Amino acid sequence: MLCDLRTDQVLDILPVTDVALDDYIGKIGSASATVPLPNRQIAARARAALELGRTAMWIERGPDIWWGGIPWTAALTSDARGMLGLRIQAGGWASYLDHRAIFHTQQATGVDQFDIVRGLIDYSASLAGGDIGIEYDAEQLSGTKRDRTFRRFDHPRIREVIDQLGAVEDGFEWRIASFRDGNGRRVKRLQLGAPVIRTGESEIVLDHPGPVMSYGWPIDATVRANVWQSRGASDNKNQTAESLPMMTELLEETAQLTAGWPRLDGTSDYSTVTEPATLAAHARADLAAALDPRPIPELTVALDRVALSPALLGATVRVRIRDLWWAEGLDRRYRVVGLAISPPLRGRPETAKLYVEAA
User: Fold this and answer.
1) Entry pTM
2) Packing angle between helix 113-126 and helix 158-166, nearest 10 degrees?
């Protein structure tokens, strides 16, 4: 379903093939689909309805909305028989905030971090042509207050600013969900959760062997660190002197080093952060994440064997695996942080790939 991005007025509903979509917590989702162009009439409709950067795309599965976002690129394809198709690539609603910069300094003192996010969404919508209908719950609070200044001189992108705001001690997760409300209205809703987004009341049990066709379980020490230092914006106000960045103190996890771990150094850059306390909070959060990186396993599930939907993001699933590696049997609860749908291929049903982390 193609709609006007600002008004959500339906422009056309087109048949598609080879649909693939994904959605995540903490990362922009994407979707791709091919519009077959079997005749001149369908081609004319597609040309009229699709204006990249101005058009919204909703993907429905049965009565439900499974995905929503903005087509940013498209490619006209022709096969050996001369059959035409239009391959569309789209990014989730949050991708719009990658195309919005802060041109007026925004300042918050002692403000709940959720209110800062909502203020940035309001700022984006307040400028001419900037309102694409993102809704939110104005009453939800995180309980953590922040002091922040986003300077117009830095031209920061709004999505980057929100990501950075959430990636500190006592931070939060956010996403923009797509669904149909009780009145049948299509909704773009900002979801916030501190420290994480959690949804759903009942859990789904996923067994392997069973509905879980296959899985991948990463084991990675390349991102591990037990010593950390972060670098911020320049703190040199003397224009004649060498410009030096602000640095945090060197953070060391002495317990790991004492226990026999080798020293593993990590660093991070926050070129727009000007407050030492904010930079220190980033460094502590980065070290905490690097001390014991949490793997993100992926589970491939046959959609015809278990009921799944994008509403599962943030929900808890119970994973049970018994094979040669998990000879004693794995039985743990995980939170779903990503969902990717792959179209059916010859000899393989339509599948969903779930990305999970320890609950």
Assistant:
1) 0.89
2) 180
